[in-house]
Amino acid sequence: MAFELPAAVGWLVLSLHTGLSLLCAWHALLTKREPRSALAWIGITLLLPLGGPLLYLAFGVNRIRTRARRLHGRLALPLEFGYEQAEDAEPAPPDVPASAGGPGGPIARASGRISHRPCLPGNTAELLHNGEQAYPAMIEAIRSAERYIYLSTYIFGASGAARDLIDALKAAQRRGVTVCVLIDGLGQWYTAARARPLLKEAGVRVAEFLPLRLWPPSLHVNMRNHRKVLVVDGEVAFTGGMNIADYHCVAGGGRNRVIDLHLRLRGPVVGQMESVFAEDWHFATGQALPEPAPAGSGPGSASCRVITDGPNEDLDRLALVLLVAVSAAQRRICIMTPYFLPSRELLGALQAAALRGVQVSVLLPGKNNLPYVHWATRNMLWELLQHGVEVRYQPPPFVHSKLLLIDEDYAQVGSANLDPRSLRLNFELNVELYDAALNTLLADHFATAWERSRPVTLTEISQRRLAVRTRDALCWLFSPYL
């Protein structure tokens, strides 16, 4: 005999589904910033019985903003629409006008208003190539630490050069230095040998950023902490695109080598990086760290500013700064990035810059560690090539460097890629650099890489086989989630 649900139960389930579906669809309508995203979630919540609303509640609601407000002592609104202004969102004081990319130019003025951080003079910035230069410099700073070491990274391996850095952190802990290490809860699983257990055994304070767990539920595949920060005693800081893993040491000739850039910074900007780490540590642990010392002018020639981006109050800040910088360029725009899926706004700004006579050069890896991102990029390159943007592919090994140069005055180096994952879903940190000497070195580095790379032509893109074009287009279709 077939089992039948009472009619009252059926009506109850239908009413529950209808109510939840309409509520979730209404929330998506009010909070999503893009019509495609809002329409997709509305369709899912209305068309999938019960499963649709549950999917939306699990993956479609951005809880990071509310949690960040609560940790910072601000009122958490029951429903936020995405356009509430943060309480600290006051314009930065205007700088003295200068060249477009100088520390007093239009890019700097807009960036100050967007980031709510001043551009600080008196810094020194040194460029570090790959693990061969970055890791020894970081270990040297850790060994000289007297008070505290703050380290945040996405991936932290435990073999080779990464093990040397672990040993230096453990030694600092033994001699009484406060050591705080923040590792992304998802990124830590990208290496077989992990640093976290070794550090915890030595008594180092180690925290996971949004760890993955079933209960209480925390399954954030997105919204990862992709920032790379090392601050020692408030005196020296390191940042860039480099994780802590042996594959960044490229001289050995391993198959999975990864080329990257990092910065060693001294001066007032170190305090900005320390504040970012303290906010992330507070977010992950609920524990407050001491306030960094007030910024004072140093002897260096570089003016610098930290720009953070993330799915909390920092959402879209870096994307806006990039649009301003590209729009203000007068002579050249140089972009080096491993993942290139620009928004329609940034794509249009690059096209417009090329059309008004600016030399726009985009340097991408010829062989990507994420092939589906490479395929999705190839689906939209024609839009740049047909308007005079030059694109080249770098030969192996895989180049993970993130670099933006505008004219001769302005540069950005950091953790952010030019794709939706970086600019909308992850927590990122870039440093603006206004320093003629360093920018010359960065321009020379870009020019050297450009010369050894092969051009991508409109003919090459347009003559792809139909099967290849279909594959690339399908990957591009999912580009907001890659």
Brief sketch in words of this structure:
The chain is α/β, with parallel strands linked by helices.
Task: Characterize the structure shown.
- By secondary structure, the protein is α/β, with parallel strands linked by helices.
- It has 2 domains: 119-213 and 222-309, Endonuclease, Chain A; 317-481, 2-Layer Sandwich (Endonuclease, Chain A), CATH 3.30.870.10.
- Helix content is 41%, strand content 19%.
- It contains 16 helices and 17 strands.
- It has helices at 7-31, 35-47, 51-60, 64-71, 106-115, 130-143, 161-174, 195-201, 269-285, 317-328, 344-355, 371-385, 420-425, 436-451, 458-462, 466-477; strands spanning 120-129, 148-153, 178-184, 205-209, 229-232, 236-240, 258-259, 261-266, 302-309, 332-336, 359-365, 390-394, 398-399, 403-406, 410-414, 428-434, 454-455.
- Strands 4-3-2-5-6-8-1-9-16-15-14-10-11-12-17 form a 15-stranded mixed sheet, sandwiched between helices.
- Strand 14 and strand 15 form a beta hairpin.
- Helix 1 (7-31) runs parallel beside helix 3 (51-60), helix 2 packs antiparallel against helix 3 and helix 10 runs parallel beside helix 11 (344-355).
- The radius of gyration is 23 Å and the shape is globular.
- It starts with 6 loop residues before the first helix and ends in a 5-residue tail after the last helix.
